[in-house]
Every structure is written in C-alpha cells, then in structure tokens.
Design brief:
With 93 residues, this protein is mostly helical. It has a domain of 61 residues. It is built from 2 helices and no strands. The longest helix has 31 residues.
Length: 93
Amino acid sequence: MYDSCSVCKQSYILEPSFFDGAMYVSYALQVALFVTVFVAIQVLHPEAEIGWYIGGVIALVVLLYPIIFRLSRSIWIHFFVRFDPGTKDLKKQ
C-alpha cells in the first residue's frame, strides 16, 4: 500500500503497528467467507463430502486474499480517519 493518499496527503501509517487491528477485521471477513461457502454448498449440494467444503474455502481464500487484505486495512483505517470531501480540491491548488 502507499504511504499516504495521493489526493489529500493523509498518512496511512498513523503509528507503529497501526494495521495490526486490521488482522481482526480480516478474520471477521474470512469467517463470513467460510459461512457463505458452507451455506452455498449446503443449499446447492446437501450430500457433499467434507472435501467440497475444504476445497471451496481454500479456493476462495486464495482467490480473494488480495481483495480481503486491502479491504480489511481500508475498513480499519476508516474507524479512525474520517473522510472530508473538501480535501479533494487540494490537488488542484
């Protein structure tokens, strides 16, 4: 990720180890993914073996890891930094 925003120059590194909390957000997103895979397989193929569940979860985690990584960091920083629409004009100055 970038060190700061290219538009408003907000630093993304607010303190050392700031994004450690994003691990908890990532964990919550992964649990939601696991539950989604479980429900989808239960609905689509109720007699599926355990291998389908494990394979489905592993496949989605591998495919979605870059998205979940950045999304969890974005969610975490939005808990502490508020968006100010007026700062978008800084680049024009």
